[in-house]
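Give me C-alpha cells for this 426-residue protein.
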Amino acid sequence: MPDISPGRGIVSTIWLKVNNRMTAVKPQNKHINHFRPVTHRAEWVVVDQNTILQNGYVVVQAGLITETGKGKKFSTDSVVDHGNGVILPGLVNAHTHLELCALKNRVKPENGFQAWVQKLLAERASLKPETIQRESALGIEQLLSSGCIAAGDISTMGITKDLFIHSPLLGIWFQECLGNDSDASPACRKGPRQSISLAGHAPHTTSPELLRRLKAITSKGDLPFSIHLAESQEEAVFIANGEGEWADFLVERGIEFSSWGVGNSRTPVQHADQIGLLDSNTIAVHVIQSNEKDFKILQEKGSSVCLCLRSNHLLHGELPDVPSMLKNRIHLCLGTDSLASVDTLSIFDEMAFAANCFPEISPADILAMATQNGAKALGLDGLAGTLAPGATGSFLYLELSAGNEKQLMESIIHSAAQQTIQRIAA
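Here you go.
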C-alpha cells in the first residue's frame, strides 16, 4: 500500500507559504468528494487504549469520524481496505521546542545541566533566523512522518508561530515568557483545531508576578498553560533555599530574584501551587524532583504532567517516578522535548523508551499517555487521541501482525517505531 501521508513534502510547502511564495498549503485532488463517507477497514482498529476491534472499520465524512464498528456492517460504498495491520489514533506530542531543531548534535550535556543551558543559549544566539526557521520546518515534517497528529510547541523567540499555524498539526503554539517582565501582555487565541496560548518557562527562571499574569491570561481564555516544573536539582535547590549554582547563574545574567519568594523550603511543585499556577488547565512538564506530597497536590488540582523521559535521561541521568504518579492517578501525557536533547521527535520512540524503563506499566497506560491524555492536556479532548465518532478523520495505519489484543498492544508500544507509518488524511 502506498504511503499517503500528507507529511511528505510538507517542509517545502510550509516554508514557501510562510515566505509568501505560494498560496496553497497542499494540492487538492479534484476527483475526491471529501463530503462523501469513506470506510477504512483493517484487521485491527484501536479506538482508544481500552477499545480494540478485530476486523474493524472507521467511517469518515467531511473530515470527521462518524462511526466505528467491526465486521462488514458499514453502510458506505467507498471502502479502503488497509490490510492485516492496525488503524490507530494519531499521536500527540504535548511538549516540544521546534525552534531548537537547529541545535541537534550541537549541545552536549558534558558538564551538567547548567552548563548545557548556557551552551544552548550561546549556540542559539549564533544561528541566523532563517536557519532556525528552516530547521523548525524540518521538525514539523519529522513530527508528521513519525505519526504525530497534534503537538504543543513551546517558543521563546516566536519564530515558529507561522510555521505551526500553517501546518496540518492540531494543538497549541505556546509563547514562552521568562524573567521579570510583568508588563508583557501577550495575546492568546482559542480555536477548534489550533490555539495560541502562553507558557511560563519555569519557577526558577520567571518571577511569580509574571507567572501569575500569564496564568490569568490563559485562564480567562480557557486555554492550557504550560510550565517546566521540578526538572533539575539546581531548580529544586534554588526554590528551596534561594541560593546555589542557579542563583549565581541568574545574577550573572542580570536577573533580579529577591522578590520571587524562594527560600521557604518548598519544592518546585509546592511553590507553583502556592503562587496559584496549578489547576486542570496546567501542563507541568518533567516533574523529576518531586515527592509524594507533590503528587497529591497535582492530583487534587487536576494538572497534567508531561513526561519527556528520553530528554530527562540524557540531561539529568534520572527519571520521574512514573509508577507513583500513576498510583496517585495523575493525568500523564508524553512529549519529546527538543532535538537539542533527543535524537528524534517520535512519540513512538518515547513510548518504547517508557516501556523499557518501566516494564511494570501496561501498554494501554502508555498508549493513553501518547493519545487521549495528550489530547486532553492540549484542549483537544474528543477531537484527537481517539477514533470515536466526532474525532478527526486523520489517523494512522501500521502493518503490524498480531494474534490477539495483548500482542497487538505490545507491538504498538515496542515495535511501531521501526515500521512504516502511513498517515490517513481526513
